[in-house]
User: What shape does this take?
Amino acid sequence: MTQNRFTLADSSPLCSGLLGDQLGYLANTEVAEKILTGEYVAPEEASNATVLVLDEISRIAEVMRQGRVTLSVSAEEFTQYWKKMKERTSSSYSKAHFGHYKAAAMYKQYAEFFATKLSIIAQSGTPPSRWGIGMTVLLEKIAGLALVNKLRVILLFEADSNMFNRLMFGNRMMELAREYDMIPQEQYAEKQSNGHDGTFAKRLLTDLSRQMKTPLGIVSADAETCYDRIAHVFASLVFQAFGVFITAVMVMLGSIQHMKFYLRTGFGESKEYMTALLGRIIQGLCQGNAAAPAGWSLISAVLINVYKSFGHGAHFVTSMNSALVTEELWEEVVRSTASWTELLTIPGESGKADKCFGYSVDYEWRDDGSWRYSRAPDKTLNIVLPDGSVEGIALLPASAARVTLGVSAAPDGHDTQHLHGEGKARDKWKSIATRASLWANRIKNGHLPPKFAWVSYRLQLWSSLCYGLGTLAAPLSDLGEVTKNFAYNVLSYLGVNQNIAAGYRYLHSTFGGVGLIFLSAEVTIGRLNMFLQHWDMPNPIGRLLRASLETLQLEIGCTGNPLMEPFDPMGQLATHCWMTSFWEGICAFGLQLRMDYPELQMPQENDRCIMTLAIHMQYRGDDLRSVNRCRISSCCIFLSDMASASGRALDQTRGLQNVDYKSSTTYDFPIEPPSQRDWDVWRGFWASYCLPDGSLPCSLGKWKNTTHRQWEWFYSDGTDSLIQRADGVTWQYRQCPDSDSASGRTTRSTRHYARVGQVKHDLPVNLRPTSVCCHSDTVTLESLGPDMAIEEPQDPDDFWSYLASDNSDWMWDQLKCPLGLDVVVEALAMGTAILVTDGSYNRKVDSSVCGAGWLVHCTKLNKTVLEGSFYYTGDGAGSYRGELLGLLAIHVFLSRLETFYGFEGGHSAQIACDNLSGLFKSKEKRKKIPPGSKNADILRSLRRVHSSLKCQCTYVHVYGHQDRHKTWDQMSILERLNFRCDELAKQAVKRGIHHNHSASQMKRQILPMESVAVFHGGQKISGECGLEIRFQIGKVEARQFYITKLGWYAAVFDNVDWIARDKALSRKPDMFCMWVFKQSSGFISSGKNMRRWFGSEHSQCPNCGKEDEDAQHLMHCPDPGRYALFREEAQKLTVWLEMNHTDPILAKIISRYVMSRGSPRLADLSDVPPEYYKFVYKQQLIGWDNFLLGQIASSLRPLQHSHLLSSPSLLTVDDWLTQLINKLLHITHGQWIYRNESKHHATLGMIRKTERRAMLLEIDRLTQLTPEDVPEDSKFLLEIDFSTLRYADTSTQNYWVHAVKAAVVAGSRRTFLQRRRQTSTSSGRGQQSSISPPIPYGSNDDRPAGPTILGKHSCHSSGDILDGSNKRRKPD
Assistant: This one.
């Protein structure tokens, strides 16, 4: 089977016939060289697809002619490579494993030796013989499924062989391909891309079809065993085209062609091997080869480019003839499927019919105006096999979901299968519900303690669920049902009682909740990350996102960004799609997006949006949908789209039933055929809006902006003629001679115009839109409008205006250019410009402000020609962020300077900074920013800048603050410039601290060239969206829950400093947060709850004895011991307040308030200054118990902050508040520990004492037994020293009690049996005995009061029990 697997690539047309003879197995012939140089003429027997593939290889080789993969390996590369490798990685049949090479990499001479050896191998083209030996390992694809045909075959290469393959092909060849931009954007198996992107692109494509109601065809044609079915001749041609020398290709492919395959199993390694049959070779790249992913990626790139050259791909065609479009679509699907699968056969691949499927998606409308999917056509879709035959594949309906790249999705946009699909443990793919259920069963059977169950919940369960969440289009209502039952069932395994209120389950732990994963919030976070990654990027996903958003805008009829509109009631007008669900999520959780998205301006004065009018007129539900359907059918957005030319009344030719208005607009509106009811509602809407005479309530005025409406008729004042534009032809109409009235007076409304001919020359600019009435051969002018607005270029007049054109003027308001901008431009053009930046931050004074200073220095003039500084306000501020902002300012300045002055490239600049990490981040040209990155907003802006920056930048690190160690003369030019930038940055921070930036904070947070920014409550989310959004969503949910369910006032909730509590609890372990939740919610394991839940008899407080002990009693117990502990902890808090620069008055207030245990009230403190009244009043509303749980009033923050500013402490107010909350929590937790020790201590606890008292009572009762009550062989149990027994340990007493009770029962039974035998003998056969069986001693009323079950290790000999007795023998 293995031999057959590696010879399947022989089916390639390049391996047989004349081509096979000319090229050989390694494409190292003259014919191969001609193919690469474009001089080869293919034989007639070659198929058209083969010729096109060879032409594409030739084209790639020509483009990359100047780029070649170097064959030498340096010692540094060898060392760097092996330092990253894991020593335990399996490899090498020769036993020279990873550990040997890691050890060699530690020594320079060994590294140089092995690097030289690899260089010689690469240049000679001759691999060592041991590289031709591999170790095969069979791994389970699905856990527990060990069928041979279901196993994954991995080949373990020699360690140094795989290093060679990775270095030459995986690194150098791929980097060269990326440098020349030779990898298609549609290929998502690429660096900085993942499976999410491919699934997301497919999702958006199906969404766009659904939004536009355009037929769509999708085919998934999977290749069979892609790595192991690649013809070496084809791979060699591709590798050479991408710049790899033939010698390096011969080394890798040559070692595979005669590979000896040994087998490794759990029983050891085989002694025999498998290799190629005589006269044949092993083909393919082998799974386990470090070059295989790169090789398949570039081979796919060649095939994709040829496929696109056929004209295949995603194309949108707008036509009202649905039948024609569907038939053309089907023909294109058939052709494209055949083309792709035929292209797969050229490298030796083959389509796998059972893994291929297709969709033919079309739409039809019901009588009520709604739509549905048409039935799949009864047709056959075929793939082409290597032998030229065809095989049919499944053609699925739009509702059928299939797993693609780990996500189950269907073209209808529903995610039911991914969320709720049923599955088994052995299935390769499982739905979210199935995975959650399987995890719950494993936790249940594993009996993990809650601590480790939480670890498993976060690291195992959630890691398996989070994949692909951002690509889902399910609405929030569907997401909420997925884990509803699961959350209830899993609570007990996490140490939480299942009877808690449902609102606590998903509540953030900061707000006193359990903190279970809230799937709706996580999906929204995933969608937001996908949107931030791809919006406005020059790739297919970026273009699909913009198309979907623009279509959504046309669907709901708004003028601005649809995502900023309220989802209710506008959401009901939108088609279900990913963008609609994303819109629902950000509105539900209070997120705002500031996007680089153009707003449609009102075309005329007094103009209005039609859907805004409908909502204002209280249209809702079906009526609102009816108005919207007719608006879409009429291709209208504004009132001016329906008005006549004069703007006084409606145009009678607009908004009519069964009329196609597609040609009357520049926008591509979705297809929408309304029902008769819809048209009735539409006419009623306009009748209720217009005046009784049919005129508009407010006439439209002049044209202010251009309009999407394509007017058909125009009037030319200069020639007194009408101009008609229809079907791409322009006609001119002149006034008829007999159109004058009888009185000799004429008006425009009485003039008749007739067509005189076609207009060939350019039309005048000042044409006026006109409404006409058409007759059989003439037209009558009915109304005339004002001159149309002309779109004028918005280019700024000067560079400084252009620099601040995207609302980023806050970054440039302190620019100083003393020598003029021309000097800066000249320095950049000549390559003499040095751009230096530095950041600053004063955490103690204001942790929300950071600054940056930057300058441009000309080495030719030896002068600083430009200086600038600015400050940033918001969360995430810091010195590192200041450095990054300075680097961003430099890059944006260079990019804008290039664009404004028309630089075409060839210029260079030097960029210097004292932050090495910031320099590294700023020079990265990334396609994707990881979701968890800090300062992700800056990195996204830098990514966008790099996409258009032409300057060749050199990045230099300079050591900062050298003025502390060197004199000015000793400092280099870069160190001096860095010193100046540091001064500028510190000045900017001072400006930011003293400036009242609350009004301009949001504007100052928007970065230049930032395509989208996320805000919540006016505060920008600059870093990882997940943490901040979870907190903000939790706050919204908690506020509603506290007010509606717990009876809090809104003002009380808003007065709590939740941010400080979040920072304190974020550093606590899961189980401590669980305790805080239980204590604050009242679901703590108090005596009252234990009696209610489990029927416990110990419901009283273990210290003071109060019955029905509850959570509130914890901090109010009057027990002296508890109170002494409380006073001790409170005194420690007082000492901490004094030692940590607390405001003296605040320290006094807090100490007295804590010591008072809630009485007297804070407001009753007579010596509180007036400025502290606000804190006193708000904290009193929150309450003393909540204060001890870390819920402090937010007004405490400014009081302590102002005091810290004047103190020598390095603490910030955030640090101080975090430590204060920790101290308060420790006071409460100390009471809980004391209470638990008092109740559950093994010897001194209340429960144990109660059991011991019951035990002593039972011993006293049993000591009253007489020797006649026990059998003869057990009487020794009563011959003990009972005074010693009373003071023995519990296990000894327990053993004696059980032994005595067992002896009594045994004696009673023995007596019963003797009497029964005697009665049976005397009474004769057949008579029933009247003797009752003995009742076990201690049952029912005789059972002792405490649990006396004998423990597993509690058995003792009689000698232990009869201590003090002269009888020491074992019982029989």
